[in-house]
Amino acid sequence: MLLLTGATGLVGSTLLRRLVAEGTEVRCLVRDPRRLGPLRVRVQIALGDLTDPPSFRNALRGVQTVVHLAAAIRDQPRGSIEELDGIATWRMVEAAERRGVERFVFFSALGASPHHRTRALRAKALAEQAVGEADLRSTVFAPSIIYAPGDPWLTLLERMAWLPLMPVSGGGRAAFQPIWAEDVADCVVAALRVDSSAAHERYELAGPETLSHTDMVRLLLRSLGRRRPLVHIPTPVVSRGLRTLERLLGPSAFATWDEAELMEVSMTSARGAADAEGLGVTPQRMAAVLGTR
Ligand SMILES: NC(=O)c1ccc[n+]([C@@H]2O[C@H](COP(=O)([O-])OP(=O)(O)OC[C@H]3O[C@@H](n4cnc5c(N)ncnc54)[C@H](OP(=O)(O)O)[C@@H]3O)[C@@H](O)[C@H]2O)c1
Predict the structure, then answer these.
(1) Looking at ligand 1, which residue's alpha carbon is closest to its atom 31?
(2) Longest dimension (CA), the chain
(3) Taking the complete model, does pTM exceed 0.85, yes or no?
(4) Mutate which of 43, 67, 85, 146 for ligand 1 pocket (most atoms within 8 A of beta carbon)
(5) Contact indicator for 70, 50 with CB cutoff of 8 Å
(6) SS3 26
(7) Domain spanning 2-146+179-207+267-282: which superfamily?
(8) What is the pLDDT of residues 41-66, one digit of tens each?
């Protein structure tokens, strides 16, 4: 039995399709099973929440492999980013050790470090450390930005692209190696098949090209066939504006500063697409996925 957390998310939903298709027995730890769509009748469901560690214990019964994707880049009413991305992973891996789980697959992020500028990447670094120190086989993926047409990030950009001027937070110079969610899911499936004696493996997941935030916005505009002048909004203005919005609207804010700040820090791997290729996956260029030349 494989326990998948984050099965309703961008990577999780893509991965779940593959796992179910190949006949893997999957249990999904979810807050709301309806968000699994039609696949909910083909998996076991464990109701749970990252902020509710007792829910991990039931979910882990009889499980050999955990794929832990659930995470958040904005605070939730029941847990901060630090609790959701850092402490919850530590608790999950501890519970997995106690339940005799053999393998723990975890998604960190490129550039995560305890001194990182962003809260999410500081929390990921601590989580990665907890996973690496655990007494079970672990596989860590550290991806650059992951995208798919219609995902929440590209949908937000598409909506903003209706404005006469396209706003970009800050200078837009941070560098990314965007990787398509389908390629990421292929990498996870391939890694799950690797029969290694290594106690800890780590894969950096990056697409085949390095693009700045501004490049990615331009590419999206081209794919939509919309010509818009870009307007760079100074970081302090974005930060103040989004913090105020979050204070006023709480979880229903269309964007938060913690999310926007992630677009101001580079997420690149010196190895480029080599780790994905080592798993037999050739990541696609963003332009090809979005249908742009
Ligand atoms: N997307 C990227 O660019 C990127 C880059 C680097 C690293 N990563 C990491 O890769 C992994 C997968 O990312 P993703 O883009 O697929 O994430 P995502 O689309 O944001 O999905 C997050 C998942 O976590 C679940 N979740 C959130 N809060 C939860 C809670 N309190 N309790 C239980 N489940 C909760 C969500 O479930 P609900 O449906 O209930 O909300 C959803 O299934 C994450 O660990 C992420 O940090 C992503």
Answers:
(1) 50
(2) 56
(3) yes
(4) 146
(5) yes
(6) strand
(7) NAD(P)-binding Rossmann-like Domain (3.40.50.720)
(8) 999 999 999 999 999 999 999 999 99
